[in-house]
TrEMBL record:
This is Uncharacterized protein. Residues 14-387 form the RCC1-like domain. GO terms for cellular component: membrane. It comes from the Eukaryota. Signal peptide: none annotated. Residues 410-450 form the PHD-type domain. One of its GO terms (molecular function) is small GTPase binding. Keywords: Metal-binding, Repeat, Zinc, Zinc-finger. RCC repeats lie at residues 38-98, 99-155, 156-220, 221-276, 338-392. InterPro entries: RCC1-like_dom, RCC1/BLIP-II, RCC2, Reg_chr_condens, Znf_FYVE_PHD, Znf_PHD-finger, Znf_RING/FYVE/PHD. It comes from Tulasnella calospora MUT 4182.
């Protein structure tokens, strides 16, 4: 068993990959990283084959992620690239630049876009009605809950599929029916259907999924919610489930700066950052006091400790909450310095990243000191793990794993050319290279950081 990481580490296995986005689930234990060249790198728990591997494979180590190319999947267009991904508790979704989509993992409620079965073995194409529309549309972003999935298209339409037991499909019903023995069943939709309600005719630009609820944002800054409303996670002032997308009154006023800029969903909460870049949350986000089971935020409310911060990015994990904000504290930092802020009650695996010997849990937002000087621009908060994307350079961070076995010979030619051509060890991965074996070849060691 690998020890928990108490602070952020550079993941060696991806340190030479230019990652553009990383995706995980607030209710799952696997992750997907998308690279600049359009490939996907998957690792974590392979529950029900969520990584596209046989379910007999329990997990894929973060030190050896599997690489998936779009062209290796059925129906892919030559030259296409992965542009979006999503992780549910035990299923995964991938979208390519041509608008096609694939899914793998648990499919007992049709959440992989296939006829219901225990699991989808390997990544299978998902029916894409948007490609058949006139004019043709294409998927650009996807989201995943426990048992359902959402798709956002380039034209601003939203599609859903999977279980509708709490209204999370946004089709106006749960499809409840009686099974033999007095048991209750609910509608299962295994092919993407168009979500209507209050978003019909609107251009949606952002979506996010909780465990059993959804939140969306349109071009005018109006915020829409639907699905399970336990703990008032939809921010509508009540706990009744919502079957169709419904506008949130707080973000529908005439004053445009009070409308939404971007949205996020956690397991039992929703987050909206308004056009003043102020953070607001609804639902249950901790275990005691205001915001807990007995005292959830019934409507969207500010978090007092970060009211003066201007949000650049937000995310919610299993029990953690995150934001990136400009760092006004460090006046001597380079241009556009950022501060990473985290909080979460009952975190116990080091997922808040405060460092060795520091508290693992925090009920109030705190500056993440180990990331001072690191230009973090995106955060993917998982059930018990947190992933950060940062620009190259900045403060030095430890690497994971700390020590690895490195090849003794040049990794390109595998030859010992003697003292006339010594191997150069890369400062990033410690692998040896001859200068002439690099692309392009070099005559001397470059100056500065490389």
């Amino acid at each position: 068993k690998s020890p928990d990481l108490p602070q952020a580490h550079i993941l060696r296995s991806l340190s030479n990959v230019k990652v553009t986005s990383i995706h995980t689930s607030h209710s799952g234990c696997h992750a997907i990283a998308l690279s600049l060249d359009g490939n996907a790198f998957l690792f974590g728990r392979n529950q029900n084959g969520a990584l596209g591997l046989p379910s007999s494979v329990p997990a894929v180590s973060e030190t050896t992620p599997i690489k998936v190319k779009p062209t290796s999947l059925p129906g892919a267009t030559p030259g296409s690239r992965f542009v979006s991904a999503a992780c549910g508790r035990s299923h995964s979704l991938l979208v390519a630049s041509d608008g096609h989509m694939w899914a793998s993992g648990a499919n007992n409620f049709g959440q992989c876009g296939q006829n219901p079965c225990s699991e989808t073995k390997g990544f299978k194409p998902v029916s894409s009605p948007w490609l058949k529309s006139d004019p043709a549309d294409k998927a650009i972003k996807i989201g995943a809950g426990l048992t359902f999935s959402l798709v956002l298209t380039e034209s601003g339409k939203v599609y859903s599929f999977g279980s509708g037991d709490k209204g999370q499909l946004g089709n106006g019903r749960t499809g409840e029916y009686i099974i033999t023995g007095g048991k209750t069943g609910f509608e299962i939709v295994s092919e993407p259907i168009l979500v209507k309600g209050a978003i019909d005719g609107k251009k949606i630009v952002d979506i996010s999924c909780g465990q059993q609820h959804s939140i969306a944002l349109d071009t005018d800054g109006y915020v829409y919610v639907w699905g399970f409303n336990g703990y008032c996670r939809l921010g509508l002032g009540h706990q009744k489930d919502v079957m169709l997308p419904t506008i949130v009154p707080q973000f529908s006023g005439e004053n445009e700066i009070t409308r939404g800029l971007f949205v996020a969903a956690g397991p039992t909460n929703s987050v909206v950052v308004d056009r003043q870049r102020m953070y607001q949350m609804a639902g249950k986000w901790k275990n005691s006091g205001e915001g807990s089971t007995g005292q959830p935020y019934t409507t969207f409310r500010f978090i007092p400790d970060i009211m003066s911060c201007k949000m650049l990015y937000v995310s919610s994990g299993g029990v953690t909450h995150w934001c990136i904000t400009p760092d006004d504290e460090d006046e001597n930092a380079p241009s556009s310095p950022v501060m990473t802020v985290a909080w979460g009650q009952n975190a116990h695996n080091g997922e808040l990243g405060f460092g060795e010997g520091q508290p693992k849990s925090a009920t109030k937002p705190q500056r993440l000191r180990p990331l001072d000087g690191v230009d973090v621009f995106s955060i993917a908060a998982g059930q018990n793990t947190t992933f950060f994307l940062a620009s190259p350079g900045g403060a030095e961070l430890p690497r994971h794993p700390e020590e690895v076995d490195h090849p003794e010979l040049c990794v390109i030619c595998s030859k010992d050319l003697g003292d006339d051509e010594l191997e150069l060890e890369c400062e990033k991965c410690d692998s040896p290279y001859h200068l002439k074996c690099l692309t392009p070849p070099l005559k001397e060691v470059p100056e500065g950081e490389w």
